[in-house]
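Justification of resources, computational component.

The compute hours requested in this renewal are based largely on the per-chain cost of generating structure records like the one below. Each record pairs the submitted sequence with a full structure-token output. That output is archived, and it is also reused by downstream analysis tasks.
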Amino acid sequence: MRPNRARAAELIGQFDRGHNSPRGVGRLLPAPLLLGDHTVHHLDIALALGRSADLAPEVANAVLHVETTIPNPFVPARTRSRNLHLTATDTGWSTGPAGRPQVSGPADALISVLAGRGHARGRLVGPGLPILAARR
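The structure output for this chain reads:
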């Protein structure tokens, strides 16, 4: 059963407003990790509803940078990205040593897969994809 659009918009609005006053474990995390957390959950909701994620390139690039450089006790994205060359085809962001196995695709798919969301794997390509997929 698909939620109706009005309810979906209401839930997304509540979620968007919540980032200004973090609760629970969110109060303990540094702001860069909160941006990543908020973005990953935004993607979870939008993509599950078949909607576009509509991420600004600056936000997507910032989240990818944080995911691949700052250790996160809850989401081991940095470990998942280790020794891979990642490229966001829609924003121009990239990281990782040249000559390493490549994984490329849209920034929202990279963000989701690095956060452990396998549903976005089909939007990524490259010889490093099996390595990334095996890192759960």
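Helices lie at 5-18, 31-48, 57-69, 77-81, 107-114, 129-134. The first strand starts at residue 85 and ends at 88.
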